[in-house]
Write a structure and sequence with these properties.
By secondary structure, the protein is an alpha+beta fold. The protein has seven helices and 26 strands.
């Protein structure tokens, strides 16, 4: 018995060393920029899994394996994977992601999570809503910067017309906040300093300088307002039905004239499985459909993908499975040709964009982009506005007057 106990004790450190379960401090390298983020591993061997974080939201892998020091983890719903080796307490390898523009490869490294030491500095309070004046390539005059703070710990997000950056997280140290994000997509690092005039100096990814002012101060100074997502996009002729005719994932043609849509309120969601902000919106649409389907709501996702996904939409199928989508999903075609197929849309340039179609088949509004949980109260507000719009349309009949 003593010999057996000794053998077990001798093997215990080896067993512990081989378990990767727990939190890790990870980085990906994007060109010359190192992006730190929190990473979690669960299980072991052929049942290993890993999760990226967007604030409290998890993006958990579809499959994984750890054997003989080699680690492979797959996220099918983003067509991404991690291939790495484990040695001396380090995970080192490459993260591969297929995106709209190209297949991206990031060098990846992770070590066991260790809590950051608490700062002894006086930490300024920057919590609240800020405005970043700028001229974006999508016609915006300002972005919103949402900040939540607990002492030196800060969670923030920049909200644009497409949606937000994801939850930027970090701490105050050496006179500045260093905030970062990586949830399998949207790698970014922001350095934030509070200036003497009360504004924020923001350095994005080591090269782009931004300035933020308190929202109340921006209004008092008459600075440009952030774009209203419900007014950014419209249609050329609101007296004509919104038309579509695309194949579903089984190759069956589906059009707006199908019986399933007649007399229904229909949300037309222009999206792509490559789009991070579409991953933010889809769980909400899934729940919205479950809640209102029995009252006459239908949702149609028009998914525009890359050429290889059009040949084999494996990522889109995994996307549907991941979020438990029960509404209609159609293959819109190549994302580069989307504007040529959505000829009724005016000023459509945000992924996702959702059109609200009344029971009469006419477009009653549109919403550009969608925030993630990283936007805090503005995420909650966006969901409430969507739901209120759906409620209003469902309460009308096909002959009701437009509003």
């Amino acid at each position: 018995m003593q010999l057996l106990a000794a053998a077990v004790l001798a093997l215990a450190p080896l067993s512990i060393a081989q378990s990767l379960a727990g939190l890790w401090d990870a980085t990906v390298k994007v060109k010359d920029l190192e992006v730190p983020f929190r990473f979690e591993i669960s299980g072991n061997g052929p049942k290993i899994s890993a999760s990226f974080f967007n604030g409290d939201a998890k993006f958990t892998s579809s499959s994984g394996n750890f054997s003989n020091g080699a680690l492979t983890i797959n996220w099918d719903y983003t067509a991404s994977k991690l291939e790495a080796t484990v040695h001396d307490g380090l995970i080192e390898g490459k993260y591969f992601r297929s995106g709209r523009d190209a297949k991206t490869v990031y060098p990846f490294q992770a070590k066991r999570f260790t809590p950051s030491p608490l700062t002894t500095e006086d930490v300024p309070s920057i919590a609240g809503l800020w405005v970043i004046p700028l001229a974006s390539d999508k016609g915006e005059s300002a972005w919103q910067f949402i900040v939540r703070q607990s002492g030196p710990e800060v969670t923030a997000a920049i909200l644009r017309i497409d949606g937000d950056t994801g939850a930027l997280q970090g701490t105050y140290k050496n006179g500045k906040l260093v905030l970062s994000h990586f949830s399998g997509a949207r790698p970014s690092v922001f350095e934030v300093k509070l200036l003497a005039d009360g504004s924020l100096d923001i350095l994005q990814n080591g090269k782009t300088k931004l300035t933020a002012v308190r929202s109340a101060e921006a209004r008092a100074k008459g600075l440009p307002e952030p774009t209203d997502p419900s007014k950014h996009t419209s249609v050329k002729d609101p007296t004509k039905p919104f038309t579509f005719a695309f194949n579903d994932l089984n190759g069956k043609l589906v059009t707006n004239e199908d019986a399933r849509f007649q007399g229904k309120v229909v949300l037309i969601d222009i999206m792509g499985s490559w789009c991070p902000n579409c991953h933010d919106e889809t769980p909400f649409l899934t729940e919205l459909y479950k809640k209102y389907r029995s009252r006459g709501l239908e949702i149609v996702a028009l998914s525009f993908e890359e050429a290889d996904q059009l040949q084999d939409p494996a990522r889109l199928r995994a996307f549907v499975k991941k979020y438990g989508i029960e509404y209609t999903v159609l293959m819109g075609g190549d994302w580069e040709q989307a504007s040529g197929k959505l000829t009724q849309a005016v000023n459509w340039n945000a992924w996702p964009t959702t059109f609200f179609v009344g029971r009469d088949g006419l477009v009653r509004g549109a919403h550009a982009g969608f925030p993630s949980t990283g936007s805090g109260e503005l995420f909650t507000k966006a969901k409430e506005e969507f739901e209120a719009k759906v409620e209003k349309l469902l309460s009308e009949n096909a002959r009701s007057s437009r509003f």
